[in-house]
């Protein structure tokens, strides 16, 4: 994943590379293409607002394609590259992970799409609580929750892609 390239460098990238950088964050060709086409951005906030607007304008079929690209909970335990990602959620107790995986399957059966959640740490118990809480939603409510979670995940990934204002010196 592109990390710390800075807004100025992102604005200056050739279109194909700009699309690729954003696609790594959001898994949507449409969103990545439209965001790259909206350059230049004056500041990070402008890019984040546009990314949110584009995400919330996507059709349900596009959101389903995005959801298919997300790795499952616990797929990459303790991965330093996947920190703050649901695939790094882990617990050393195999029973906790078995229960978590069971609830993820139950979620997919109930709603017809995979579970996504913005995580700020790798705590399996918090992820489990999130799944159990969201299982009470109806399908329409859960689709809205999913978009909000995707927006939070995209924001975190775009922040990593851009890095601090000005980027890092190696870009």
From TrEMBL:
Gene3D superfamilies: Oxo-4-hydroxy-4-carboxy-5-ureidoimidazoline decarboxylase. It catalyses: 5-hydroxy-2-oxo-4-ureido-2,5-dihydro-1H-imidazole-5-carboxylate + H(+) = (S)-allantoin + CO2. One of its GO terms (biological process) is purine nucleobase metabolic process. Residues 11-159 form the Oxo-4-hydroxy-4-carboxy-5-ureidoimidazoline decarboxylase domain. It is an enzyme of class 4 (lyase). Its EC number is 4.1.1.97. Keywords: Decarboxylase, Lyase, Purine metabolism. The keyword Lyase applies. The keyword Lyase applies. This is 2-oxo-4-hydroxy-4-carboxy-5-ureidoimidazoline decarboxylase. The lineage of its organism: Bacteria, Bacillati, Actinomycetota, Actinomycetes, Mycobacteriales.
